[in-house]
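Lab notebook, bench 4. Still working through the backlog of constructs that have no structural model yet. Next entry is a single chain of 455 residues. Request: give me the structure tokens for it.
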Amino acid sequence: MSDRAHPARAHDDPEVALELDRRHVFHSWSAQEGRRPMVVTKAEGSHVWDQDGNRLLDFTSQLVFTNLGHQHPRIVEAIQQQAATLCTVAPAHVNGARSEAARLIASHTPGDLDRVFFTNGGADANEHAIRMARLHTGRHKVLSTYRSYHGGTQLAVNVTGDPRRWANDLGSDGTVHFFGPYLYRSAFHATTEAEECQRALEHLEQVVAMEGPATIAAVVLESIPGTAGIMVPPPGYLAGVREVCDRHGILLVADEVMSGFGRAGRWFAVEHASDGTVVPDLLTFAKGVNSGYVPLGGVAISDAVHRTFADRVYPGGLTYSGHPLACAAAVATIETMEDEGIVEQAAALGAEVIGPALAAMAERHAWVGEVRGTGAFWALELVADRATREPLAPYGASSPAMDAVLAACRRGGMIPFANFNRIHVVPPLTITHEEARRGLAILDAALGEAASQAG
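Model written out:
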């Protein structure tokens, strides 16, 4: 059925936009009927406006990607200038925006990760990293943790360790899962970070031994698991995984799609491990590389893996690999981060504002079981009972109590990020300390309101 009766009105009328969305748009990770989505009419800095004209503080960075906030003038201008010169080009041709973006990325990646294969986003970055690892090693299996997220495409969702995998997992993609460190809900009955680290590494050793080291191409880890709960690994864990991989000829793939480009208070979260001495063989990125203004992801490749394809064709590619508009946005993003000390700002935001405020909330609210995070990358784990650590919402679902917290946040003027029984505090890295404190105060009040309603 034609919608020509509404020429261009969806751009101007939120009600028309919502009507056409319901009629024609198929949404991800959703049952299609009964959705009541917010219409975003405009955005600026750390705020968005909804269909009713409400100005809302964005404590989600959307899906944790608007690291430099909304409508950053340097990024917008870079896209406009690039569009005026070269909107698009086939990936076989060189374009200056892609070349400069690759140089800038390589200037911040650890070790010898100096070559970049560009993708459209994080999921296909992980797909291609795994393909590279399999071809480089001649092995097929891939190990990854439960409580992880690596993307929604077929292989990436099978590598994922959260419930979104279940409906898509046929057990045929060569993926094996193991338990990563998570002291608050330790699978290893650990009571200290040191015990959790040691026992988690012993568990990984056992999984490698039982699966057969010579069958395993890669271990894929989020340097700091993001959507799964922002569980910062204990000291020594990533270094221990690196040692296990080296001993068995297994590649280490660091998924920095969410944690990279300043989110964790470092250019890449893996730098938190052993004073930056842990270098993965492949590192995947997306989101913060250009604040999500134009879809872009990629794989940073070590020299050893690069040499595998020096005289051997790499059997993979994407029509929009290194898209000029996306790469121009990346150049502007990285240059802004360098010029304005954004990584240092994110570290200070966590240490001076977010961390102390969340710790204070834990003292005030019985529902807060644990606070964890770094930089602008934090989570509150909410529990119905601190003694038993019963989650406020079950694994893989929500609950009326969690819904009440989220609704109170929204009424207070802040968009929260929630997953199961957690509230993630992930604002733009450019948020002011005053704005961050206002958002945290809204969250504080929402926890109190929801708890009082629950009795």
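Notes after review: Residues 254 and 283 are 5 Å apart (CA to CA). The two ends are 50 Å apart (CA to CA). Flag for follow-up if needed.
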